[in-house]
Design a protein that fits this description.
- The chain is an all-alpha fold.
- 81% of the residues lie in helices and 0% in strands.
- The protein starts with a helix and ends in an 8-residue tail after the last helix.
């Protein structure tokens, strides 16, 4: 029963970690690319988005650290066991949670104190978060090569998924007039980000499963295959947005905004399912290679 509880809690925590990391880093990247086209309302929205999800990530990072002690002890009471908490500091999972938490603290500091090197602290925060992912789990399989692949994967998927909330906000903001320009430019940048994302994802997945047969013969492979299907659907919707909905904004701006908003919401739901599946793969199942 205890094992079953942590089997459920670990993927949930991981899903929240992915959600906070991708939204925070993604909004920062989105702002970096398109802030010249923001009005003050959108700038404030993006800043608040970064701050809120960083605070959320900080909270989840602390829970993730305590969960290390919980997993060591095997029950809920272990999360407040001082001896187990001290041991957690020595584990890679504990150090990963500390790096994650530190990264969000640095980003929050950069938002609240924009006069004291905000770009530096934001950059250090992102690096700390990225490093928290590459010292544990599957990224360590082949050392720096798989760690580099994972970093590229996180950056590219952050740009893509992190754009959903800012773009959706622009669609519902009646006074914002640069949606067409930003949507067109986003489609241009997305080509490169998504291309890298797909290549890195396929290479990393091959390293994990070892062969195509494992996709069909193992639970891990089945879930990974389902993830591939959902990503393909997401790519198709993204292509539809670029080729049909964004150009339609020039024909009927109001209806185009409504359709784009609905499309983004569908992408968001599919993305959340993908994050949940990813969390299960990284916390609850061994790879076909036995890792």
């Amino acid at each position: 029963m205890i094992f079953d509880v942590w089997t459920i809690l670990n993927p949930i925590l991981r899903t929240f970690i992915y959600l906070s990391v991708l939204t925070t880093i993604g909004t920062i990247l989105f702002s970096l690319h398109f802030s010249n086209f923001f009005d003050i309302i959108v700038k404030v929205y993006c800043q608040n988005l970064i701050k809120k999800f960083s605070i959320f990530g900080l909270f989840i990072g602390l829970l993730a650290f305590l969960s290390v002690a919980g997993n060591l002890g095997g029950d809920f009471q272990s999360v407040i066991d001082i001896s187990l908490i001290m041991i957690s500091f020595e584990t890679l999972s504990g150090k990963s949670a500390i790096l994650l938490t530190t990264g969000f603290i640095l980003i929050i500091f950069s938002i609240l104190n924009d006069k004291f090197f905000p770009v530096l602290f934001k950059t250090l925060g992102i690096l700390s978060i990225l490093f928290s992912f590459v010292i544990i789990g599957h990224s360590t399989i082949k050392g720096i090569s798989t760690q580099t692949l994972l970093i590229l994967h996180i950056i590219c998927i952050s740009f893509w998924l992190g754009s959903f909330l800012p773009l959706r906000y622009m669609c519902i903001n009646k006074n914002f007039r640069n949606l067409i320009v930003i949507s067109e430019k986003f489609g241009f940048f997305a080509i490169f980000y998504v291309a890298i994302l797909v290549i890195v994802g396929l290479v990393f997945s091959y390293i994990l499963v070892g062969n195509i047969y494992s996709l069909f013969s193992t639970i891990y492979g089945n879930i990974l295959l389902l993830k591939f299907v959902l990503v393909s659907i997401l790519l198709s919707i993204g292509a539809l947005n670029k080729l049909r909905l964004v150009p339609y904004l020039k024909i009927d701006y109001q209806l185009g905004k409504y359709k784009l908003k609905k499309s983004i919401e569908i992408e968001g739901i599919i993305s959340l399912i993908i994050l949940i599946l990813t969390s299960i793969l990284t916390t609850s199942l061994p790879t076909p290679m036995g890792i």
